[in-house]
What we know:
There is one protein chain. α1 packs across α2. About 30% of the residues lie in helices and about 25% in strands. The two termini are about 40 Å apart. The radius of gyration is 21 Å and the shape is globular. It is built from eleven helices and 17 strands. The chain has two domains: about 270 residues, Spore Coat Polysaccharide Biosynthesis Protein SpsA, Chain A (Alpha-Beta Complex); about 80 residues, no CATH class.
Amino acid sequence: MIFPCILSGGIGSRLWPLSRKDRPKQFLPLFGGESLFQKTAKRVNHSGFSAPIVIGSNDHRFLIGEQLSELGITANSILLEPMGRNTAPPALMAALIAEESDPDALVLLLPSDHLIRKEEVFLEAVRGAEQAARDGAIVTFGIKPSEPNTGYGYIKVVPGEEPVRRVDTFVEKPDLARAESFLKDGGYFWNAGIFLYSAKTMIEAFKTHQPALYEGLLAVMETRHSDLDFTRLDADLFGKLENISIDYAVMEKAENVACAPVAPEWDDLGSWSAIWTVLDKDEDGNSSLGDSRFLGSRNCLAYADQGLVSVIGLEDVMVIATSDSVLVAHKDKAQDVKHVVDQLKSEGRDEVDRHPRAYKPWGY
């Protein structure tokens, strides 16, 4: 059995002012009335998968419960992190939970903020990687790059045509020249942060490469206790865990790492420029969410939470308007939105934490 584990933490600061601490991007119903979290849960709501393990923030517990309920999906468990500790602790916690139910369990670790348009292609890749995971590999899914994107890390794989190939090396986010060379080489793939592994394999990997974190997490998991539909952890013990990604903690150290290349029309919607990429466009390349108008403008994005946004005589510009904040930025500067959020945080502004309109399952 494959146990999907959906990681639903994070606040999506680069999608401010729409994404905020109390309602981050993965829970926003931007795509056909569904959120990215819901699309992720539906993606693995198939035979061969167990009910999902969801690991998320205590701040979002009711959002998680409500959005799963809207889909008619009951979670295996909803584990609430007292604070964020990156992706390494959840990778091990999911393995420990899955092994309790099935000693031979596989875990599919999934971020909740990805858009996959060809879901069957992705599921075929998962099925194709299943045996490699059962044989002891930690499989990461590499996305075939469609452009020399500098916002993603890359995975270099050994040459071949097999559905799962050995990883040569992991590469940090490159500059444009290097990204262009990766695209020409053909042996590099975007690191999607999606992993398939056996619970036993990941537990052994932590014992070998992160023994202190392993022991710390065992102690944390001993403190689990139920609270309605949720599982809580001791905040003091959890706060002492190292804040580290699964890439740094295990993937870059282990020798049993493999990659399954796949082209499922995947997008990590981490910025407004990425949102523009996946939306329908008019004949001038403009995209909109909400009520907007374009005049003499090209390749722009407009979002109107309330009222109307008009964009005149601009190119490659994003205009995002909520009831209490407006963002205007060039698409090339989409990654810098987080710096505005950091500045607002330092000033103690509520606009980074509180959404101007409370959301309930029946609407705003």
